[in-house]
Please model this.
Amino acid sequence: MDVTFYGAAGEVTGSMHLLNTGADRILLDCGMYQGRRKESTDKNRNFPLDRKDITNMVLSHAHIDHSGRIPVLTGKDFSGRIVTTRPTAGALQYMLMDSGHIQESDAQYLNYKSLRSFLYQQEQNNTKKQITERGKSDIKKLLKKNAYDLNNESINNLQKKNGLDIIKPLYTMEEARQSLGFIDGYPYKYPVTIGKDTTVKFYVAGHILGSAFSLVTIKKDGRTYRVLYTGDVGRFGKPILQDPTLVFDEEDRDIDLFITESTYGDREHDPVADLGPSLKRVLIETFDRGGSVIIPSFAFGRTQELIYMIHELYDKQEVPRMPVFVDSPLASNLTQVFGEHLESYDMDTHEAFLKKGINPFYFNKIRFVQTVEESMRLNQDESSHVVISASGMCEAGRILHHLRYKVHNPKNTILLVGYMAENTLGRRIEEFGEAMAQNEKQDPPELKILGKTYPLRAKVEKIGGFSAHGDKHELESIITKSNLRIKKIAVVHGEASQSAAFAQTLRSRGHDVVVPKSGDVLPF
Ligand SMILES: [Zn+2]
Model:
């Protein structure tokens, strides 16, 4: 028996591994590569396996870098099932549809760009002169409905007319919808048959709602083999969710191969205990200035934690009760999924809310904004409020409109609660914010938002510690503080330096550790 590592080996996206038991081939996750467009698009389109040969798939959690290629898997020849936890199955209904929508918009944007340059060139050839700004603007008008929306019909017609290639999305919303029919959700700690004498049992991973350690048990030639795949490991002591599992069922303790993530294999996080007091300070200071707090946030996990913590602060009357707007339809739908899975909450949530019959994600100051019109009205609302909106790194979505109306005013706060990747607007706000804190007298830096520049005068605050990934101590505790007895460890899902450092730590504790490269086969 062996495991082949296809993605998230020496990197953090595109998680996908194949467990070969001899009788069956079980896919562990089917994630999307994210990052530089060209490189990740090529990797996402090249599915490296023959789908006919895959018996079933096991999914650790709903994040797109673990689940985003499911519609690519189910698109043809796959006749297995996708086995996961119930909350993950619930969240995927929205996550995969949203991903399909993003794929369609991305493809349309690329079609727009290539057609636009073709038409510019054509205009220059016709007039034998450099194209004027006026000429460019006329062509853009032909291809766009307004400043933000493309005219897809007109774009595709002109592409056909001029014999240009039309770029297709990785998958469509309709293909995403069809893939949902393959997904089965099960309770935690319930063995599900996934192959010949082979079962999977899910244990709480504490990373996001529904996230799981997948424990695969194979009975073969009179022996029992166990593979534990962590997926992403959460933090201990965070609000809402139960902590990652340390006590496994007696019959599951002996692990032949332990496959662990290592995103923060060499880093330490801010303590979880600091989150509440930091949030309280930001809310009070902004309210005192008469401003609003704008929070770019991921729709799944981070948004619900923020709602929960603000709810707690409001209930304890520790901060002024400004209205709170969740302005992301995806986040609103996923908050509903959170509300349906009380079995996943920790004891504190039961004590603080559920035992009193209170929904942690609803209170009289919160409003889930649905329509574009309501979102636009909110942009111009001058009274103090809190907005939680997506996308988390300010790359797209309604957050951009809140920013363009609010960044110029020093009474407002932009509160950053997540990791900002390089080359994103979120990262620029973060860096400018740090520079402004160093030197308050300098001219305000300029931010480019939706094609226009705005001076950044709002206060930029950052609260670390919200990370959904455990740090090096938390990752290690699953191995050293749990009741597992582990024979061999494979370290995946980390940048090379993080994986190498984590592997070194584990070796120094006496473990047999490998750091596989993409394509490596590891027998066990
Ligand atoms: Zn994740």
Remarks:
- The radius of gyration is 24 Å.
- Residues 61, 63, 66, 207, 232 surround zinc ion (CB under 6 Å).
